[in-house]
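Q: For a teaching handout, I want to show students what a protein-ligand complex looks like in token form. Below are the inputs, and the small molecule is sodium ion. Please produce the holo structure.
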Amino acid sequence: IRRRTIFSGIQPTGIPHLGNYLGALQQWAKIQNESALDATLLFCIVDLHAITVPQDPVALRESRRQMLASLMAVGLDPQRSILFYQSSVPAHAELMWILSCQASVGYLSRMTQWKSKIGVADSASLSDPASRKKLKLGLFSYPVLQTADIVLYGATHVPVGADQAQHIEFARECANSFNHVYGPVLALPQTILSPAKRVMSLAKPSAKMSKSDPDPKSRILISDSPETISAKLRAALTDSVPGDVSYDTAARPGVSNLLEILWHLSPEGTYEGIEDVVKDCQGLSLRAFKEKVAGVAEVHLRPIRKSYEEAYKKEEGRALDEVEKNGAERARAVAAKTMVDVKQAMGL
Ligand code: ADP
Ligand code: NA
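A: Here is the structure, written as tokens, with sodium ion included.
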């Protein structure tokens, strides 16, 4: 039986918001804590993916460190999980080139994510010269780098949100065509779908909570102080429907989003389901309801905020750099084995 190897990545987007936390990072910590001791766990801060769109160098460097401190703050233990920056392991880029020689341009052009990033509705509009000019090769081939990230470690399982499922399917296909040509060298990864928890913006609850929203009140960060959490929730857009709170994502998106947040940030087992949450909030004014959500969020995030501050500031960050250096070293050792097999099979 093959050992389980779990790999996932997140872009260095600075301090995560509640959407990143409930949609990805909380799940990673859970996977770590429930994994058999012989499973290999790798969580990578994918800075090479980040540069597919323009980045300010100073801000990028800072964002990587904030994300690393955040991974530790949510409970990823660098003894148990290999935490590292993608660019610290040159084999990601090397294997990407090799896989590029197998990857199908036709398959890549059907990926929905880069199309939405460059703002074209369908591949037909790519015959428009203006769209073609905007399209960077790196953004187009992003899924090939993602394939390299995964197969480099022989990952058997990749926890991702539903939006990434298409890319993992591509990775399987791409690794499979490599194996078809050169023999069974690469492990084909399986997707572990995150239980869908789409957190919506506090300011505009029809859109998902996102760091790209220019309004900082639209999202709660895992490092927010109790005062900031309360202020953001007090300002959250709800509605003027009279009577008790109720769950109706179409008619009452703001209230429904806060009910979801309350549910998922409450201690496990507090509620059986969303109806249970609604029942618990009967008789509360909207103001009191928001205060209740703020209280629960504050209690949940308090230890995370504390350990974020500790991880980030300790010895002016030298401890953080040490964690990364150590993680990268372990990652390079796993990667090197795969590269030997890959090159051997290819005659390189
Ligand atoms: P952002 O939208 O803030 O740029 P990313 O696209 O960098 O966030 O997403 C990082 C991870 O967080 C992904 O796994 C993504 O699925 C998850 N995620 C981001 N926003 C949300 C959200 N509002 N609700 C649930 N999960 C989210
Ligand atoms: Na995004």
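A: Two things your students might notice: Residues 210, 212 surround sodium ion (ligand 2) (CB under 6 Å). Strands lie at 5-10, 40-45, 81-85, 157-160, 190-193.
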